[in-house]
Amino acid sequence: MQFIDFKKEHFSHNEAAGSYFIQISKDEIGYRDIEVLEQLDDETYSKTEYELVDEVSKITIKMKDPTNIRVNF
To answer: Which residues pair with 46 in a beta bridge?
Structure first.
């Protein structure tokens, strides 16, 4: 399994929806299932709440608040 880490600074803010999001090209991660984990204070990772929008050429990860995450694919 491969992964990409994102810092909370990578998130964009959707003011109308009151949420934050990251878009990732499927060329970068492929066309398989992904898992999103939140980085904890002790540098470990744990499952987190998120919404995934799966489109033809990209995925969008939406979260209530920005945080450091790891995307496994």
So the answer is: 38
The three-class DSSP label of residue 10 is helix
pTM, two decimal places: 0.91
Strands 12-14 and 51-54: unpaired
pLDDT at residue 1, as a whole number: 85
Mean pLDDT over residues 49-58, rounded?
96
Q: E strands along the chain, which residues?
A: 3-6, 12-14, 19-25, 35-39, 45-47, 51-54, 58-63, 69-72
Lookup result for tokens 């995450």? 69
**Which residues does residue 39 pair with via DSSP β-bridges, in sequence order?**
45
